[in-house]
Write a structure and sequence with these properties.
Layout lengths: L2 H4 L18 E2 L9 H6 L10 H17 L7 E5 L2 H12 L5 E6 L2 H12 L3 E6 L8 H11 L3 E5 L1 E2 L4 E2 L5 H7 L3 E5 L18 E3 L12 E6 L1 H8 L12 H7 L14 H17 L1 H22 L16 E5 L6 H12 L1 E2 L1 E2 L8 E5 L7 H17 L6
Parallel strand pairs: 1-12, 3-4, 3-5, 5-8, 8-9
Antiparallel strand pairs: 2-10, 6-7, 9-10, 11-14, 13-14
Helix pairs in contact: 3-10, 11-13, 12-13
């Protein structure tokens, strides 16, 4: 009889050493490395999830998010969970079974929203486009006029393809058809300009682990007054208890009181609060300018020095925070990524969904958006390509 077969369920597991986590520079599409102040906050003492000092931290998160998302709405919060949970909350609360959602599907996140919306029995109309392309205002207007949906979903930063969808002007189009504008900013918030109120966004969600430099697990979200009115006037109950914003909003003090819904991820909220403080202290204009400068530095090396090609052809559609680089013919993409990891503990990711096997993805976000990291990425490409016999065209 083997040891595994003879072991009893009452046996004490053998002693093991403390957890060993390697140091890595995460220059993929996310998560990015967290700011030290955000990491340190995770070690602070626990508070009760309804204790006044903890509720104060939640209020501070809400205030920081109003500035970061450029909105005056009172309905800001951090969803307890990753960006996927915030995505679900954004769809499930403001649309009811049988209502129509128009989805910009030009990468994996639009595809995920189509899947998620169908599970809530919505009528899903997909605007499919090849990865690497975005939607013009004329295309969006035509689709809105034709379908007159209750909701329009767009991903500002499609990290699987490296595209930057322009949101400015879309809100006005949505007003004409009484459509709620729902925007994913998971890999863009803090990295590129975003003006929630000015652009007429009704629901926006993001992630903590990218340009905001916090660990994943608490995801920013806001709802406009119009979106809140839609939620409050629903004819059907929200089909998810875990993401019901009537209940979660009450936990965040949206309705003038505080009620228990779930135990918030206390340490994650500490960390997000600190990351937001650091981000907002830098100021939006300097923050956006730093990301743009690092994006340009990256391509000066990849394109200018090494002759690599951008996957996204239209300059207006290129995403500064998650960059997609075409894999040259004859080059083994996985081998280069492995070289970067083995020599420099540096993450350079491959494609995802429609871009798998076609591109590398390099993130320039938050705490990582600094010259030392960008230069290291270019160095890893230079050496890794040379090792495979690549020569600049």
């Amino acid at each position: 009889m083997t040891r595994a077969m003879s072991a009893s369920v009452t046996d004490i597991p053998p002693k093991s050493a403390p957890i060993d986590v390697p140091m890595r520079i995460l220059m993929g599409p996310g998560p990015s490395n967290s700011h030290p102040r955000a990491l340190a906050a995770m070690a602070l003492p626990q508070l009760g999830h309804m204790h006044p000092p903890f509720l104060k931290i939640m209020d501070e998160i809400s205030d920081y998010l109003r500035y970061l998302m450029q909105t005056d709405t009172k309905y800001t919060c951090a969803i307890s969970g990753s960006g996927h949970m915030a995505m679900e909350a954004s769809i499930a609360n403001v649309l009811e079974p049988g209502e129509k959602i128009l989805v910009g599907e030009n990468g994996i996140w639009g595809t995920r929203v189509c899947d998620l919306a169908a599970r809530y029995n919505l009528e899903v109309v997909s605007m499919k486009k090849p990865a690497g392309e975005t939607y013009s205002l004329e295309e969006l207007k035509a689709a809105l006029d034709q379908h007159k949906p209750q909701g329009l979903f767009l991903c500002q930063g499609e990290s699987s393809a490296g595209t930057h969808q322009q949101i400015e002007g879309v809100g006005e189009l949505c007003k004409a058809t009484d459509t709620l504008l729902i925007v994913d900013t998971v890999c863009t918030l803090g990295g590129v300009p975003f003006h929630g109120d000015k652009w007429g966004v009704d629901v926006c969600y993001s992630g903590a682990q990218k340009a905001l430099s916090a660990p994943p697990g608490a995801s920013p979200m806001f709802m406009s007054e119009k979106a809140m009115n839609k939620l409050q006037s629903r004819k059907s109950v929200v089909a998810t208890y875990n993401a019901d914003m009537k209940l979660i909003g009450d936990y965040w003090g949206w309705y003038g009181k505080r009620s228990y819904h779930h135990t918030g991820p206390i340490s994650n909220f500490y960390s997000l609060r600190e990351a937001l403080a650091v981000t907002c202290e830098e100021g939006l204009e300097p923050l956006w300018a730093r990301h743009q400068a690092m994006y340009e530095m990256l391509w000066d090396g990849l394109e200018g020095e090494l002759g690599l090609e951008r996957f996204v052809k239209d300059p207006k559609s290129r995403l500064p925070t998650v960059n997609t680089i075409c894999v040259p013919e004859g080059v083994d993409a996985a081998k280069l990524s492995g070289f970067a990891m083995n020599k420099y503990n540096l993450e350079i990711a491959g494609g995802l969904g429609p871009t798998m096997g076609k591109v590398w993805r390099v993130g320039v976000m938050g705490y990582n958006a600094h010259p030392m990291n960008v230069n290291l990425v270019v160095t890893a490409f230079r050496e890794g390509l040379a090792a495979q016999g690549y020569k600049k065209p």
